[in-house]
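B., you asked whether I could sanity-check this one before it goes into the benchmark set. Here's the sequence:
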Amino acid sequence: MIQKMFAERIGGESFGKDTTIYKFAMIKKAKEEALRKNPHRKMIDMGVGEPDTAASDEIVEVLRNEAGKPENRFYSDNGIPEFNEAACRYMENVFGVSGLNSEKHVLHGIGSKPILAMLPTCFINSGDVTLATVPGYPVLSTWTRYMDGEVVNLPLTPENHFFPDLEQVSARVLERAKLLYINYPNNPTGQVATKEFYKKVVKFAKEHRILVVADSAYANLTYDGEQPLSFLSTEGAMDVGVELHSLSKAYNMTGWRMAFAVGNPLVIQAYGAVKDNSDSGQFRAIQQAGIYAMNHPQITEGIRRKYSRRFDKLVVALKEIGFQVEKPKGSFFLYAKAPKGTLEGRTFHSAQEVSRYIIEEASVSLVPWDDAGSFLRFSVTFEASSEAEENTIIQEMKQRFFALNLTF
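And here's what the prediction gave me:
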């Protein structure tokens, strides 16, 4: 009976019957096979997409102190005012975005993922279009399809410096387009936005009456003098967009689920209306810890230095192996063209095939991307407790890759 009741948006009567092996399921199976073949060889996991260390002691201490306070036991619904006020200060102190009203321009989320899920329910009707950069985080696109909308992908390629080619979107698509999803610093390419790019996005959005959803989860993670840049610092951006910020990456708070949306007041109001019917707000004590984090952006400095140092070492090692790579300007991901085969004559037809081969034969876990060419994503969030251990892991990774005899 139940099999016939599933909504078409999740597959209808076919729900649960799809035998396609998806990327992360493939990675899991490949890891199991690698362990079976080499039970004593440690897996080097450079595919993980979350920080390798916990939040700082002072943030944890705030949570500890706040968790037991009786006034924090209540539902927070759409958030406590102090959090919104701190978010406004954070936007000004870190990104130079001033003039925000904490009651109109900001609203918290239980992580940025639910915000991305809720926004299409605010705007997408049947037949409406979301423009989404690929490769990338799929949640906004998934929920667009749930709302019976259409997703038009904008490929991020080296030729376009991993920016979407907005001029190539057809007039027929633009007539139905409502949302444009962008993500900078970008997962997985590591590209950062420029002021010129954001100006182009604002102009495009105004001309075609499209709402911009700027996912800035990695906004604070930039390197070598690259300054954090907010979409909202662009003239006119507030008229056409909303930006999402997360404490997960910049403060090692992934499991804490603390984020906020900031931008156009009507968009924030609509998001709040849907949110009010979706959740009862994040635990107040976690919001208080988030306030402390945003009031102390210098905490991110040590995290940024660690990732930058690891990138420097990883880039050198990958170039020695044969990868053509450069240090990314932001995020904690390095995006590299996948090898084409091996000296023994094996040919790879996709990044997913390469990734599986590397996991099974070398016990090095990477994430494959085949959305806009065949690429592999390396993450510098691999577990290492010291710089010496970082060196050991990267050296071991290099030796294992050499043994594969890859061709590029």
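One thing to flag: Residues 20-49+300-407 form a domain with the Aspartate Aminotransferase, domain 1 fold (CATH 3.90.1150.10). Otherwise nothing jumped out at me.
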